Amino acid sequence: MNRIMQLTPPVVAAMALLFAGVPTNADGPETAANIVKVTVEADKPDTDGKQTITIKLTLKKPWRVLANPVGSKELAGGETKVSIAGKSKPEVVKIDYPQGKLVNLRGTGDFRVYDDKTEIKAYIRRAKGDTEKLEVRIYCVPENYKKGICLLPATLKAAVP
User: Fold this and answer.
1) What are the Cα distances from residue 18, in Å, to 4, 128, 134, 159?
2) 13-65: pLDDT as tens digits
3) Per CATH, the architecture of 30-159 is what?
C-alpha cells in the first residue's frame, strides 16, 4: 500500500533534524582549517616601516569562499576579509583582494568566489624599528557547491614570517 506524506513545516523540520549532519571526510569533521590552507610571505619592512604581506589561500576542491567584494548584497556578510594584528598595532594601508570568479546560483544571482588558489596582498606600515611578530587573520565561509553545504564562518590565523 502506498502512502503519501504531506510535507508540512513540522514534517520538514523533523526531516532536517533527522538528516542533518556535520560534513565529514576520512579524517573527521570538515573544518575551515582543513579546507582552506593559508600561507603567508612578507617583505622586510623598509626604512619607513612599509611592508607588503602576501596571503595565499589554497582551497580543497570542490570548496570555495566568497570573494571581496562578493557582488551581492545578500552575501556581503560572508565576504572574505583579511586583518593584520600585532602588539604594535600596525597600520593597514591597503588590502588588495583579487576580483574572484563570477558564478551564478539560481535564486541568488551572480556573485564572486575564490576557489583553488588565491593571493591577497596587504600593505601595512609599522612603527620604525618594529620587529614584533604579526598575525594575519582571514575571515571566510567555506562552501562546497557540489554538496550544497556551507560551513559556519571561521577566522583562520597565520603568523607573518
Assistant:
1) 19, 58, 44, 40
2) 433 333 344 455 555 678 999 999 999 999 999 999 999 999 999 999 999 99
3) Sandwich (2.60)
